[in-house]
Amino acid sequence: MSRIAAAVVLAGLLLIPPALDSYQVYLLSLTLVWSLLALSMGLLVGFVGEINFGQAGFVGIAAYVSSLLRIDFGISFWLAAPVALAAVVLVAALIGVITLRLRGPFFVLVTLAFGEIVRIVLANWQDVTNGPIGLRGIAPPEGLFGIDFAGKLAFYYLALVVTVATSVALAVIVRSRTGRLLVALREDELLAAFVGVAVMRQKVIGLCISAVVAGLGGVLIGPLLSVISPGQFTIFASVDMLVMVIVGGVGTLSGPLIGAVFLVYVPEVVQFAHEYRPVLMGALLILATMFLPGGLVGLMRAMVARGGVRPSVGAGGVRGG
Amino acid sequence: MIAQQLANGVVLGSIYALSALGFTLIFGAARVVNFAYGALLMLGGFATLLLTQSAGLGFFVALPLAMLIMAGAGVLVFYLVVRPVLGRGDLAVLLVTTGLLYILREGAIIVFGTEPRQIDMGVEGIVEIGDVVITNQRLVVIGCLVVLVGLLYVVLYRLRIGKALRAVAQNRAGAEAIGLNINRVTAFAFAVSGGLACAAGGLLGAIYAAEPDMGDLPLLKSFVIVIFGGLGSVPGAIVGGLAIGLIETLSGAYISFAFKDGFTFVVLIAVLLFRPTGLFSSRMT
User: Fold this and answer.
1) pLDDT digits over B219-260, tens only?
2) Cβ A116–B105 below 8 Å, yes or no?
3) pTM of the predicted model, to two decimals?
4) Angle CA(B145)–CA(B149)–CA(B155) in degrees, nearest 5?
5) Is B94–A51 a contact, with Cβ atoms under 8 angstroms apart?
6) What are the extents of the domains in chain B?
7) How far apart are CA B206 and CA A2, in angstroms?
8) Is A114's CB within 8 Å of B265's CB?
9) H helix runs in chain A, sequence order
10) Domain count across chain A
């Protein structure tokens, strides 16, 4: 059932965009980048059992390192991106070793501090990062194997390939030994340690995988928006990712994807004033946590299990997705 | 010069200590982190501002009144937002209070606008002690810390509900077993916390300005302070608040002003590495 649905969605994502105008293609690319970020947060919340308010810090490091390598040193996107990802993994491993001994609120607080430190450095290290103004005129990725990525549509397909490949890789990882160990840790760390799981190592691995996925989103942001600035990588961005995960469904991989679609398109469709967005995010976070613990995915599963769509329950939530 | 910086640090640290006290009380009583705490502080600042400006009350009448209002707001936060998810783990509480932070903070931007507005304390003049110059306004801040800490100790050690609060903080199951109403005690902790947040907000608004994002940094600093001093510890919050105020002022003056907030977080990470339970790890003693 879900495989058929995934195949239909994928076919649509492959075939429809050439017929859309460039703004719609841009929105789709934006959704894909947010999907990567939501996936990275979803992996942490759902499988490591922690919230990282510094997740946007990983995204920011990847975006800045890859863009600076291209602008200052003229290195190709295809070389700069892996270097940026390596940098993010290094930072994540370091942060993980320091913080993952702490649980719950302690971990959250330190990640919050980490995110703030990244933002402060990005905003104040004028000589390198150009301060609060940020970097401008980031070019699309250079051509590779005769494929030109300069157009919006080509970039969209690049983002699509990255997102699909990441989703597949995460699906494999989640079902692998690493994924099962992570779930065991999340459920009962003491018991897991007792039966011989290397607790710290597994958690650091989980954080690093999450950071790589966030970094993939980060290296795509520069070419997508052509501008990056410290203001994009604040705790607000991390909370946006979190809302996507919670609204979509914790503990699944389809949840963050659906959440990303929901949160990019609902504001587009509703067309309310931009300033109301954070208030709406807050309300969504509270309502979803209280009344929709399984997220939209849980809601859909419940409806399928019940054998019929009940508009009174689902219509408001599913329409946007 | 150094004495002047120390004095500035103590003033800043007093506000931090007040803010951290309210934050740590909730952690002690309910074992939850209230992410909306900074927003309550901000609302306290605006409540004080409105009472002085629109209602024309003097600062020293308006502030206690605002603290009572915000104590009520704290109780509302507990019953409407926190309690419904309390049995579902840390994550759920973090999520709902983060949601509340967004609603209050961004709601305040829509209602009040982003322009900073100063609260008129009605206190003028300066005091000179040697080379050190302190405005009377800033002495009021230190005075408020002393008075409120005194009151807090009376509440925690003399009043029945305060003793119940300490009992719940020390042993939740035990407190429940002897018949304490945990919900009511926790609601009381949220009330005291709301009052203290309001005091910090009102004083910040008088010394700097009331604005919708004024609670952001105190929230982050409160985190750092309660980790520094030990989560749930009252003396830890006071000493930690003063220490962080001093560290920030001194590092801002002598190392780098732009990175002064960064130093606080470096201190945080250092404390977590070397003394993860904080400097005063015993809770609510």
Assistant:
1) 888 888 887 777 778 888 899 899 888 888 888 877 776 667
2) no
3) 0.80
4) 150
5) yes
6) 2-214
7) 58
8) yes
9) 2-15, 22-43, 55-73, 77-99, 104-124, 126-129, 152-175, 177-187, 189-194, 199-225, 235-248, 254-270, 277-291, 295-306, 311-318
10) 1
- This complex has an ipTM of 0.79
Phi then psi for residue B127, to 5 deg, are -120, 135
A8, part of any domain: no
Which sign does the torsion angle of CA A302, A38, A98, A86 carry? positive
Q: How does DSSP classify residue A230? A: G
Tens of pLDDT, residues A186-231: 777 777 777 767 677 777 888 899 999 999 999 999 888 888 888 8
Chain B residues lying within 8 Å of A188, measured CB to CB: none
- Residues facing residue A147 across a β-bridge: A144
For tokens 């990303």, the residue is A260
Angle of CA points B266, B272, B276, to nearest 5°: 160
**B83-113 pLDDT tens trace:** 888 877 777 888 899 899 889 988 998 898 8
Q: Kindly report, residue by residue over A236-287, the tens digit of the pLDDT.
A: 788 888 888 888 888 788 888 888 888 888 777 766 666 677 788 888 889 8
Higher pLDDT, B279 or B185: B185
Mutate to test the interface with B, among A238, A290, A291, A292 (most CBs of B within 10 A): A290
Q: Which of A47, A58, A1 is nearest to A233 (CA)?
A: A58
Work out the number of other CB atoms within 10 angstroms of the CB of residue B20.
34
